[in-house]
């Protein structure tokens, strides 16, 4: 059964348009949103997460007996749905200056042992208790992913998760994501190149036409 | 112009007695009270004198003490005033007195049901020590909102500035309801207010308040559940140079040339009894 | 879990003064950090004070769970409810702290106001909250006047949380602090929020602060709520001109 049903999602700003886009994503499935720079991949994830408002369409999230269009939720409902069901790994680390990586993890998910997740992402223990702002780009990227995944959200949105990562670390990330998917998480990944994706991934959306203007 | 009995006119006395009845009906509550004029200045014991004047009858016997002593100028003058204006008898023996007007001490002698103790009070509201606004203090009394009193107590035990609670005028809680000033009596006297068979009336003319304790009222000194009230008894083995008593409240008499202090009982009646025995 | 619990507090069409606030509404949900942002004079602090039970609105109601209308309660009930269930952190520490009392007494006072009469328990709580706010135990006996601005704000927060309130109200708590002290205070606040589960209603003119700790943001402009959004959406996709101004002011 589909956990996320996107129906004619569209974002218009000025002369530019992203979409309309429609797809279904099931639990445990990995879906790809492909496209070049400026094609609107991040925008599409932002729309589903509610970081931006869609101009048209619907994104129906279906979890257990709960079935609602994310675009029609009140802000408190959206915040509750995000906290309970949606993880979003952007390319930006949302951190209070000075917080260590482990602090951030505890804040996001107090009851989860973050250390195990950090280890699986090959984050060296010596940096765990350093301010996250001092971590390298690749380390921040994996921390972002850890923070998004810690609470085991049924739906995980990932924006270019490989972008800041060393090639040598790609297998680590791939196996981490594969494990998540096998445990039932639905993954929606925005990517430049399909070959970076996971073996079981299915391309849902291709935003290949470069943005105009 | 002829003076009326006990100086005050009957209408004024009736007004004061009405205030007293109201105060007795709500133990510990400060009843607003405009004292009639007396031939002394506010702040010199008008509150006590007005209460005494309103209560005195021809058969009463009055005892007056100041700091426990029957012989201070104040005590002597007040006795003389009522002897002259009311023609009543006075006494220095508590058990013979029907009305005992005091200042700064609770009588040490046993009090009984037929008696009234009248206290002169300079500062009737314990909250005013740390609440600037009279309106706010009134609200706190009305709501029994006494948290700040305990904060103050807490502050004294924990603050590094060593705000020391004076050893007198230590607030009490009446029947678990109203916070009340015992008047500037030593802390140790607080226990004598509790469950007292006599009526106790507190008059504060300058501050325009009157409050009272009916017989056998529960009066507890403010304290934490886990830190009992400390009556502040001296522990230096001091004794009265007249009667030798070490348990009663002693006043400092003089500092001898050898650097030692001499002490004397503040309650002259009890001291004299002990000395005679 | 995806369903919203009932709000802890709802303001229903409140107005105040001729211009300060008009017809502003909000709901605060359990465990959330809700930020009120807006320029000076937008009505943020007035709305906060109304929500905190400190200022009766001219029109409208403040509702608690069960439909209890805050300002229709007898004063005594309102005061005791405020003391039990709310904590308030003011922009100026002098508004809530007793500068003549020790830090320990300042923290312990809400306990005594709520009926605590046990010295040992109150002292232990004061110590615990002193430590929780990163304050030096050796200074428990000091008066707030000798503390730094950041320490005074932390002292206020300790005092506002010591009795275990459901809602913590904060009026520009980081104002006047340097960047490092601001970050430290925000870190502490977000930690405390997580540990205690207390809901926070926080007023700030600085969207950066809202971005760091808010779950939800309300934008106020000229006495009305003009936009509601999660902080990421407000920053990425502001709709109202006032919201756009605030986003522009971040950079």
Shape estimate of chain A: globular
The structure class of chain A reads: alpha/beta
The tally of helices of chain C reads 9
Question: In the CATH classification, which architecture of chain C applies?
Answer: 3-Layer(aba) Sandwich
Tally of helical segments of chain A: 6
End-to-end CA span of chain A: 39 Å
What structural category characterises the helix and strand content of chain C?
Answer: alpha/beta
Determine the N-to-C terminus distance of chain C. 36 Å
Uncertain residue segments of chain C: none
**Total E-strand runs of chain A:** 9
Q: Main traits of this protein?
A:
heterotrimer; B: 277 residues; alpha/beta; Rossmann fold; 2 domains; seven-stranded mixed sheet; three-stranded antiparallel sheet; 12 strands; C: 251 residues; four-stranded antiparallel sheet
Describe this entry's structure for a reader.
The complex is a heterotrimer of chains A (213), B (277) and C (251). Chain A has helices at 41-49, 75-85, 101-108, 114-120, 137-149, 170-182; strands at 2-13, 16-26, 30-35, 56-63, 66-69, 86-89, 155-159, 186-191, 202-207. With 213 residues, chain A is α/β, with parallel strands linked by helices. In chain A, the strands form two sheets. Chain A has a five-stranded parallel β-sheet, sandwiched between helices. In chain A, strands 2-1-4-5 form a four-stranded antiparallel β-sheet, with helices on one face. Chain B has 277 residues and is α/β, with parallel strands linked by helices. Chain B has two domains: 10-127 and 165-221, Rossmann fold, CATH 3.40.50.11310; 234-277, no CATH class. Chain B is built from seven helices and twelve strands. Chain B has helices at 10-25, 46-55, 73-86, 134-142, 147-158, 190-193, 268-276, and strands at residues 31-32, 61-64, 89-90, 99-102, 116-120, 172-174, 178-180, 199-204, 209-213, 219-221, 250-255, 261-265. In chain B, the strands form three sheets. Chain B has a seven-stranded mixed β-sheet. The mean pLDDT of chain B is 91. Chain C has 251 residues and is of the alpha/beta class. Chain C has one domain (9-250): P-loop containing nucleotide triphosphate hydrolases (Rossmann fold, 3-Layer(aba) Sandwich). Chain C has nine helices and ten strands. Chain C has a six-stranded mixed β-sheet with strand order 6-7-8-3-9-10, with helices on both faces. The model of chain C has no long low-confidence stretch (mean pLDDT 93). At the A-C interface, α2 and α3 of A face α6, α7 and α8 of C. Chain C: GO terms for molecular function: ATP binding; ATP hydrolysis activity.
């Amino acid at each position: 059964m589909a956990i996320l049903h996107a129906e004619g999602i569209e974002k218009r700003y000025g002369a530019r348009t992203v979409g309309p886009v429609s797809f279904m994503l099931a639990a445990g499935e990995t879906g790809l949103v492909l496209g070049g720079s400026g094609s609107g991949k991040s925008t599409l994830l932002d729309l589903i997460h509610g970081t931006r408002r869609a101009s048209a369409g619907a994104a129906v999230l279906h979890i257990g007996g709960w079935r609602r269009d994310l675009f029609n939720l009140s802000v408190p409902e959206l915040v509750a749905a995000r906290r309970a069901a949606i993880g979003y790994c952007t390319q930006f680390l949302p951190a209070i200056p000075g917080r260590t990586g482990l602090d951030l993890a505890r804040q996001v998910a107090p009851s989860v042992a973050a250390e195990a997740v950090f280890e699986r992402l090959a984050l060296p223990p010596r940096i765990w208790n350093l301010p996250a702002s001092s971590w390298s780009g690749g380390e921040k990227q994996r921390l972002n992913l850890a923070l998004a995944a810690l609470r085991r959200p049924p739906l995980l949105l990932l924006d270019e998760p490989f972008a800041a990562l060393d090639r040598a670390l790609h297998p680590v990330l791939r196996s981490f994501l594969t494990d998540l998917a096998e445990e039932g998480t639905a993954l929606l990944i925005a990517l430049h190149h399909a070959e970076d994706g996971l073996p079981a991934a299915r391309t849902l959306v291709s935003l290949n036409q470069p943005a105009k203007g | 112009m002829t003076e009326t009995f006990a100086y005050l006119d009957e209408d004024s006395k009736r007004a004061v007695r009405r205030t007293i009845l109201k105060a007795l009906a709500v133990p510990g509550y400060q009843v607003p009270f405009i004292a009639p004029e007396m031939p002394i200045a506010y702040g010199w014991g008008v509150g006590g004198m007005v209460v005494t004047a309103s209560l005195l009858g021809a058969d009463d016997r009055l005892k007056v003490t100041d700091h426990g002593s029957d012989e201070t100028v104040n005590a002597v003058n007040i006795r003389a005033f009522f002897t002259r204006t009311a023609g009543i008898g006075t006494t220095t023996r508590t058990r013979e007195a029907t009305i005992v007007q005091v200042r700064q001490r609770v009588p040490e002698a046993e009090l009984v049901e037929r008696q009234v103790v009248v206290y002169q009070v300079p500062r009737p509201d314990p909250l005013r020590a740390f609440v600037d606004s009279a309106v706010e203090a009134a609200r706190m009394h009305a709501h029994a909102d006494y948290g700040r009193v305990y904060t103050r107590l807490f502050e004294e035990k924990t603050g590094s500035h060593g705000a020391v609670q004076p050893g007198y005028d230590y607030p009490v809680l009446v029947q678990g309801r109203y916070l009340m000033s015992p008047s500037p009596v030593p802390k140790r006297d607080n226990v004598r207010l509790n469950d007292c068979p006599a009526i106790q009336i507190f008059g504060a003319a300058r501050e325009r308040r009157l409050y009272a304790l009916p017989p056998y009222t529960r009066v507890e000194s403010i304290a934490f559940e886990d830190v009992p009230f400390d009556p502040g008894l001296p522990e230096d083995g001091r004794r009265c140079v007249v009667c030798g008593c070490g348990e009663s409240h002693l006043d400092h008499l003089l500092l001898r040339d050898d650097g030692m202090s001499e002490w004397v009982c503040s309650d002259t009646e009890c001291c004299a009894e002990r000395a005679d025995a | 879990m995806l369903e919203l619990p009932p709000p802890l507090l709802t303001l229903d069409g409140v107005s105040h003064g001729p211009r300060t606030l008009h017809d502003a509404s909000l709901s605060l949900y359990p465990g959330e950090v809700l930020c009120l942002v807006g320029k000076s004079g937008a009505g943020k602090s007035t709305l906060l004070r109304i929500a905190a039970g400190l200022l009766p609105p001219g029109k409208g109601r403040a509702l608690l769970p069960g439909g209890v209308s805050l300002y229709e309660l007898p004063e005594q009930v309102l005061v005791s409810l405020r003391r039990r269930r709310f904590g308030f952190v003011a922009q100026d520490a002098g508004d809530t702290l007793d500068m003549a009392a020790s830090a320990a007494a300042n923290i312990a006072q809400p306990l005594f106001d709520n009926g605590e009469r046990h010295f040992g328990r109150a002292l232990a709580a004061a110590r615990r909250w002193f430590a929780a706010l990163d304050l030096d135990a050796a200074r428990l006996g000091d008066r707030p006047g000798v503390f730094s601005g950041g320490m005074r704000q932390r002292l206020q927060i300790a005092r506002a949380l010591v009795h275990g309130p459901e809602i913590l109200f904060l009026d520009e708590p980081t104002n006047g602090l340097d960047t490092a002290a601001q970050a430290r205070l925000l870190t502490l606040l977000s930690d405390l929020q997580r540990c205690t589960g207390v809901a926070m209603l926080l007023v700030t003119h600085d969207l950066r602060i809202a971005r760091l700790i808010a779950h939800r943001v309300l934008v106020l402009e000229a006495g009305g709520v003009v936009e509601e959004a999660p902080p990421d959406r407000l920053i990425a996709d502001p709709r109202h001109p006032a919201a756009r101004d605030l986003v522009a002011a971040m950079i």
